Amino acid sequence: MNSHRLPGKGRRMGPIMGHTMHYRRMIITLQPGRNARGIITARHRGGGHKRLYRKIDFRRNEKDIYGRIVTIEYDPNRNAYICLIHYGDGEKRYILHPRRAIIGDTIVSGTEVPIKMGNALPLKESTSTNMPLGTAIHNIEITLGRGGQLARAAGAVAKLIAKEGKSATLKLPSGEVRLISKNCSATVGQVGNVGVNQKSLGRAGSKCWLGKRPVVRGVVMNPVDHPYGGGEGRAPIGRKKPATPWGYPALGRRSKKRNKYSDNLILRRRSK
């Protein structure tokens, strides 16, 4: 890993990845923050550098075939690094970079694989492998065969805390405790790039490159743009309780839908 200074007045030290090999990239057309009709549905997104999408293997369905980490690369589509894996049968795939994994390490996925960082295996017991309680895992499946959907961000890690019947109990990075089928697979270890939240971008232009637009306070807007807008000078918001830009209650109102199928699987809601 090389080190360089970001240009501009507010430059900071920033890491870059060197000597990467590009594989399985595809061009996709993006409309940041817009839906199919072109209407803004997620604010503060737009612009940024053009991106090529990397196909990531979340399913880890190369069973019982050992692979070697060839490169560790930067991915503009996520805050975690990715690894290029060369498998013994000639297949090449990208996976999420496990923490402390280095070039040259070997990984494998299957039902009878050792409990080792980067290996993917089911949560259930097998004849020779039993994932012990307290194991740190990431890239966890919710539905069997669909691929990992939980704990995929940089530094994310979940913990296996119990096994009973057909289900396993996990504590997710948000603090939520929920049940997962023991047939679902997970990857051992923690996602790499742990300190991404402490990284200083140094200047506003660096955030623009990432496609993040400025955030403006509602109190300085016009009345047509925000419920807090208008007034003479530095006027208060003029409401008893906080509100969203569309006038709905904010800061405390639960946004999760009621009576979802997963309600019976959640033993404890996430910590606030």
Summary tags:
1 helix; 2 domains; mainly beta; 17 strands; Ribosomal protein L2, domain 3; structural constituent of ribosome; Ribosomal_uL23/eL15/eS24_sf; mRNA binding; ribonucleoprotein; four-stranded antiparallel beta sheet; SH3 type barrels; 272 residues; seven-stranded antiparallel beta sheet; globular
Question: Summed up, what is this model?
Answer:
Belongs to the universal ribosomal protein uL2 family. Part of the 50S ribosomal subunit. The protein is an all-beta fold.
Structure, described:
- The chain is 2% helix and 25% strand.
- It is an all-beta fold and 272 residues long.
- It has 2 domains: 2-196, SH3 type barrels (Roll), CATH 2.30.30; 216-272, Irregular (Ribosomal protein L2, domain 3), CATH 4.10.950.
- The strands form 5 sheets. Strands 9-16-10-13-14-15-17 form a 7-stranded antiparallel beta sheet, with no helix packed on it. A 4-stranded antiparallel beta sheet has the order 7-6-5-8, with no helix packed on it. It has a two-stranded antiparallel ribbon with strand order 1-2.
- The longest helix is centred in the last third of the chain and has 6 residues, at 204-209.
- It is globular.
- Residues 9-16 have low confidence and may be disordered.
